[in-house]
Write a structure and sequence with these properties.
Helices cover 62% and strands 0% of the residues. It has 7 helices and no strands.
């Protein structure tokens, strides 16, 4: 059995210390090519929260406006004791009918667009079938069974100049 080599010079001590000293990446628990550790993500999250608090003015200025409490009180007084005068009720009724009218018109418009678009993009007819029949695009050997993605291909292939495989 051989005896361990003794460290006789200062250079030998420094060389051993350098070889056994952990690198900064290893001290942080991170090795090259690995994602950051949980400690690093926690540090980023804490820094983000601190930055947002500083930006919001925590500790630098008043966050709650004391004059706003009067508005809160007025709101609750009006909520508990609503106004039922004829002018107010008539105005509310008129605004309610306006809102319902816009909702109905928006629904009718959405149904009309959906019907036209649904027929145009259907598997059995519309733009896709017409474009395939005209030879503008191939249906990929699927006969005339072209779904929405086929309709997209049929309509936009010529305009974009690309090909879909």
């Amino acid at each position: 059995m051989t005896a361990p080599r003794s460290l006789t010079t200062l250079a030998d001590h420094e060389q051993v210390a350098r070889a056994t000293r952990p690198t900064a990446a290893r001290r942080l628990g991170r090795v090259r090519g690995q994602p950051p550790s949980a400690r690093a993500w926690l540090l980023v999250a804490v820094a983000g929260v601190a930055w947002s608090l500083w930006d919001a003015g925590v500790g630098r200025k008043a966050i709650v406006n004391p004059g706003g409490w009067q508005l809160v009180r007025r709101f609750w007084v009006a909520a508990v004791h609503p106004q039922f005068s004829s002018d107010f009720v008539l105005s509310t009724w008129h605004d309610t009918l306006t809102t319902i009218g816009f909702a109905v018109l928006g629904t009718v418009l959405a149904i009309m667009v959906g019907l036209v678009g649904g027929i145009a993009m259907s598997e059995t007819g519309g733009i896709a079938k017409a474009r395939v029949a005209a030879g503008a695009v191939s249906d990929g050997g699927a006969g005339m069974r072209i779904g929405p993605s086929g309709a997209y291909r049929a309509v936009f292939t010529k305009r974009c100049g690309g090909s879909f495989s």
